[in-house]
Design a protein that fits this description.
Shape: globular
CATH topology of the largest domain: Elongation Factor Tu (Ef-tu), domain 3
Strand content: 35-45%
Order of helices and strands: EEEEEEEEEEHEEHEHEHEEEEEEE
Largest sheet: 6 strands, antiparallel
Helix content: 10-25%
CATH architecture of the largest domain: Beta Barrel
Distance between the termini: 50 Å
Structural class: mainly beta
Length: about 325
């Protein structure tokens, strides 16, 4: 067993969400195998983003007054209230009081997955028109980041096993809310991905990774003022020849902690600002979670670059470097 005193756990700003901090009381870094326990604090007048995701939440309110907003209704919150947020339910916690709103939130940890393909046939019963129902299911598959190949009688989806199971559950629930339905799915970890998908796919190998003191996603302004180290694969170190302190360098990296995305998002999660298209934002939640940042090169030591202004957390894979 292990013990912590919660005030001793670091409070981290939630990236792009002013007035909200999170303390990761227990997580995989502590050896927790299944769940993470987080402590959120929302300042008066602030709120968490209005969003949804593939996993459930269990929430316990410690102190303060607030409002839980959903797609169809809202609930007043106070001390000792508990909340269950189901997968893909849109939700937001708003502080309506004069003191911080503090609540515990439990989420499942990510589990090891495998690449799968699945053949899916969807049969809504007693419905003369099927195309809109099937189109909705295909859109859900794409939103989950899956490769989708529609066919005349079935569709083939390919991707991470966790995303496939989440997408299938979400698609089935979406159709079942409107009518009775039969969904037939065949899974395989051996079936080849169709040529259409292979020809359109891309593959990159990281050339290095980021080292800094920021373990969790945080406010972008804090990241942009921080100093980081970029550790390049030693076999590629000759490619750094010509870089010198004072250079401006473009760093291309992979948002490895990004999960789902929406095509329309509030800038920095601020509900007071109108939604914009993801391609007009710097959000890490995007169809291809790739980031590009111009940094100041402070030092070059063999295969390690010290830079300022990199908005990436510890462990972020680096895909490429270019002189700005």
């Amino acid at each position: 067993m292990k013990l912590k005193n919660s005030p001793e756990v670091a409070k981290l700003p939630v990236e792009g969400v002013p007035g909200v901090t999170v303390s990761w009381l227990w997580s995989a870094a502590d050896g927790a195998p299944t769940f993470a326990l987080r402590l959120f604090e929302v300042e008066p007048g602030a709120s968490t983003p209005y969003h949804s995701h593939a996993h459930e939440h269990e929430v316990f309110v410690l102190s303060g007054q607030g409002l839980l907003q959903g797609k169809s209704r809202e609930y007043a919150l106070g001390p000792d209230d508990t909340v269950l947020v189901l997968p893909y339910e849109e939700h937001q916690f708003v502080n309506t009081g004069i003191n911080p709103l503090r609540f515990l939130c439990v989420i499942p940890l990510q589990v090891e997955t495998m690449e799968l393909t699945a053949q899916v046939s969807l049969y809504p019963l007693r419905r003369p028109e099927l195309s809109s129902t099937i189109d909705n299911a295909l859109e859900i598959f794409r939103q989950q980041g899956l490769e989708v190949t529609p066919g005349p009688m079935s569709s083939l989806i390919a991707g991470d096993s966790a995303n496939i199971f989440r997408a299938l559950q979400r698609a089935f629930q979406n159709v079942a809310e409107k009518s009775e339905v039969v969904m037939v799915t065949t899974f395989s970890n051996a079936c080849p991905v169709p040529e259409k998908l292979v020809s359109g796919s891309l593959s990159f190998q990281a050339i290095g990774y980021v080292e800094n003191e920021i373990a969790e996603p945080t406010d972008i302004d804090k990241l942009s003022d921080s100093v980081s180290r970029i550790v390049i694969d030693a076999d590629l170190s000759k490619g750094l020849a010509g870089l010198a302190p004072g250079d401006k360098v473009l760093v291309v990296f992979y948002f490895h902690r990004s999960e789902e995305y929406e095509l329309l998002q509030h800038p920095r999660g601020d509900q007071a600002r109108p939604r914009r298209g993801v391609f007009a934002l710097r959000s890490p939640h995007r169809p291809n979670p790739i980031g590009i940042t111009k940094v100041e090169l402070l030092d070059v030591d063999n295969n390690v670059l010290t830079v300022r202004g990199l908005d990436a957390i510890n462990g972020t894979p680096v895909i490429d470097l270019k002189l700005a």
